[in-house]
Amino acid sequence: MTHEPGRPSRRAVLLGVAGCVLGAAGRVGAILAHSRIELPPAARADLRGGRIHDGVPTAMRRLAGTYRMYVSVVRSGHPLDVFGTSRPSGHPRGRAFGV
């Protein structure tokens, strides 16, 4: 396989993906262990499952710097639409959490 100038090599792409995965795992691990964040079992499973946006653990960590949080839902158990509307919810896509 030849490398095209100006494009990242396959090795660089794979190393970058591995770094993103490890970074996300570290953020999730920090949330799961955080003393100011209470999570129900389903929310813990959602975080461990890795199907959440990177902004979710980042926002949780920032909020926990000021507040003690009791998270009710991340993905699992939330309807597809925002309650009482026909607007799609961010929860099933892993982009929101309820506190």
From TrEMBL:
**Superkingdom per UniProt:** Bacteria
Q: What's this protein's name?
A: Uncharacterized protein
Task: Give the organism, scientific name.
Answer: Streptomyces aquilus
